[in-house]
Design goal:
Number of helices: 1
Low-confidence stretches: none
Distance between the termini: 34 Å
Mean pLDDT: 92
Strand order of the largest sheet: 1-2
Helix content: 25-40%
Order of helices and strands: EEH
């Protein structure tokens, strides 16, 4: 099962990530989604 974790900032001074899990052979899709998440504007 392909999976990807993308850093998503901090909450209460601890690192937070987003985990994305996809069906078999969806590695390319997960990488595209991860790239999109990384490009989202950062909250301040």
């Amino acid at each position: 099962v392909p999976a990807l974790v993308v850093p998503a900032g901090q909450a209460q001074h601890l690192p937070v990530g987003v985990q994305i899990i996809g069906p078999q052979f969806s590695e390319a899709l997960l990488l595209r989604v991860g790239r999109m998440i990384e490009r989202l504007p950062k909250r301040s």
